[in-house]
Amino acid sequence: MNEETTNEEGQGTEGEQAGEEGNQTAGEEGNQEGGEKAGEEAKGGESAGGDVKKGQQLFTANGCTACHQEKADTVGPALAKIAQAYTGKKEDLIKFLKGEGKAIVDPAKFSMMEPNLAKTKGLADGDLSALADYILSIK
């Protein structure tokens, strides 16, 4: 058990300090997992604090890969095209995913996307943000 004492410098006990270091390490690992994509995202005008890995998992779990690939246009536009169109406009992308915005990448294909918006409309705000972070990380 950790004692609730402080050392002469006003810092917590070794156990408390180790716990804090453990939290820092976990956070640092999370940032490293986003790796290069998180850095690219920051260059694109979006915050580097986003959760790209979580967004990628949501993208896959919600079946988005059936119509969207990173670099190739398939049923829907490539993620790279979507990311380019929404660079610096993360909130607009989130509005689109909520069904509150217009298709700006390939409006002709919107009729195929529209029924699938039910999946993204139902996501929590944090999940929508992570999904947008992932999409915007694709270059």
Account of the 3D structure:
The chain has 139 residues and is an all-alpha fold. It has a single domain, classed as Cytochrome c-like domain (Cytochrome Bc1 Complex, Chain D, domain 2, Orthogonal Bundle). Helices cover 55% and strands 0% of the residues. It has helices at 14-43, 52-61, 79-85, 90-97, 110-113, 117-121, 125-137.
| CATH class descriptor name | Mainly Alpha
Number of domains: 1
Give me the CATH fold name: Cytochrome Bc1 Complex, Chain D, domain 2
What percentage of amino acids are in beta strands?
A: under 5%
Q: Kindly report the name of the CATH homologous superfamily.
A: Cytochrome c-like domain
Low-confidence stretches: 1-48
Mean pLDDT across the residues is 76
CATH-scheme architecture: Orthogonal Bundle
Largest sheet geometry: none
Distance between the termini: 48 Å
H-E string: HHHHHHH
Structural class: mainly alpha
Structure summary, number of beta strands: 0
User: What is the number of helices?
Assistant: 7
At a glance:
It contains seven helices and no strands. With 139 residues, it is an all-alpha fold. α2 (52-61) packs across α7.
Give the SSE map:
Elements lengths: L13 H30 L8 H10 L17 H7 L4 H8 L12 H4 L3 H5 L3 H13 L2
Helix pairs in contact: 1-7, 2-7, 4-7
